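Schema walkthrough. Field components (list of strings):
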Amino acid sequence: MSNIKIKSKNLNVYYGDKQALFDVNLDLNEKEVTALIGPSGCGKSTFIRCINRMNDVIDICKVTGNIEMDGININDKDLDVVSLRERVGMVFQKPNPFPKSIYDNISYGPKIHGKGETKSELDQIVENSLKKSALWEEVKDRLDEPGTSLSGGQQQRLCIARAISVNPEVILMDEPCSALDPIATAKIEELIDELKKTYTIVIVTHSMAQAVRVSQKTGFFHLGKLIEVGKTEKIFKNPDNKMTQDYITGRFG
Amino acid sequence: MNIVLIFLITIFSVSLFFYGKSKTKTISIKDNIKLNALPKFYGYYIVLWCSIPALVFLLVWSLFEPVIIKSIIIETAANQGAIFSDKNEANLIYEKIKAIHLGTYFGDIDSILKESALAYAKFINLFTNSKVVLIFGIIIASVIYSLKKIKNNNKARDDVEVILKGLLFVSSLIAILTTLGIIFSLLFESIKFFSVINIFDYLFGTNWSPQRAFVRDASSITAAEFEELKDAFGFIPLIAGTSFIAFIAMLVAVPIGLFSGIYMAEYASIKVRRISKPIIEILAGIPTVVYGFFAALTVGPFFRQVGENLGLTVSSESALAAGLIMGIMIIPYVSSLSDDVINSVPQSLRDGSYAVGATKSETIKQVVIPAALPGIIGSVLLAVSRAIGETMIVVMAAGLAANLTINPLESTTTITTQIVMILVGDQEFDSPKTQSAFALGLTLFIATLILNYIAQRAVKKYREKYD
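Field assembly_structure (string):
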């Protein structure tokens, strides 16, 4: 059994008057892929946005309860969000490269955190990140071209490289393949398999097949509640909960 | 007379609307046929047919009637022995005849004038009567035509659409033709100017003193006068003054406008935004003449006072005062346009930046502003062209002397100020001084046109990127 990296205890999230998450208790294991499934609007994305405090950006959002990483409460008001986000990277649903060169897209994060003080150090970080995201071979000769000139799948791998560039411990992926075609999706899934050796990964997905393929642990959310969580194999073969059974067999959702 | 006619035509067509509508209904019930369009379309159809031909006829008639009557009257007067050597004299006699007819002429009336005035009255009567008769003829003909069409259950919907499309087309045509007309009148007057003054003397001359050319007949200019005129119309001091004041205005407007735009778009809560945005936009609604006298009566003297205290010579009309006030006037343009472009930068870019740990100001500086830059540049260029074309503030606060200076405390002048100065008061239309206003106008027009074009290209380029 691997170590628990992130542990949420009685996590509640409110958007104004509307409660989006109800008492979520979920453990994420280190260097493992955890998939979160469930119908749209069930709170999966809200949950992962708690892990890097992205919900702070939304004025009306309020988070109560604990969410711990290595025993430290992420939800603590005094926690330094900048260094939290250095440790917890995120990849979004739609590829969102900055309107900058490929190189600048990757070096953006390290520069912000004061990493890579010399040009050669930065070059090294950029190269390593692109290699880890399996993009290096495709772009090494055109690092000064805009990131937006890449194809959708390449853009998403660029965004993964951007997340890796600051050397995080956890990578959150919010439906990273929903805007991609099957070939690009396969590449990203392959990449996730590779990345889990180094990083703890949480992936939100609408594709059951994807959850089965990439994850070791799966959590099923419904209407803001974590209905069931367990080993991926068990969830998809023999779930305890009737609702989970119905969802994965396509009877609702 | 025309107003009465238009009124009658309108009343008549509106009442025909109801007639047409009910008529088609009865037809469809009586003959038990399916109409090709809703009854109201038949109403529209008959209204349009009844009004447009008559109104177009009235318009054309009103345009040509005076011209035709004038040529007839001048000819009759000539036949009766009136003597005029050129067009101007003929015009004068025609105006006299008209005045006699209206009873507003108090000079001596000889027999020729008297006879002509009677002839004029006769023609006016004839023309008016035939106009009325013809208009009613046209209305009756078009009503008969459209009723016949309606009875045949025509495709009224399609016909109405075609007519409306035509109306809209004509409206845009009028707008385009007016613009072209203005441009050509600028162009032709400028060509007259440049036939006297060499275009290179104008573009590169450093001395602007058009009063030297006052009361000079362009056609009878002597070589000596020509030499003197040559360096009276140097454009450089004006463009220098214009750019200088616009530059000062931009120094004020760009930072303040841009920063307030960033604040509005990124930091202000919805509540603050809702209150403060309209307040900033009030600045844009203040008439420029108010800014002008504020600059001339408050800011200018204040600067002079401050300058005196510091031991500086400050002209009470200074480029600084005019530029400063103009900058304040332009703030809302920059702020509201840059607010818009910053708002249209997708949230996903900001999220991406926050997610790697960037703070808000880092995100704005390194992601949002670069992404919005083309749009921001566009908004600044639009503001520049506004500053260059601005008149009232500089007329009141910048001064009139065409000094070639870069001292903001001295008075200077702009293209627009000089145009005002040239055209205020008495002038001869064919003197180079008056015509120089058209040349200045043309130059100004070309300059702002180029700026607007570049600005729109920049904004468009930006839009293509994120839509």
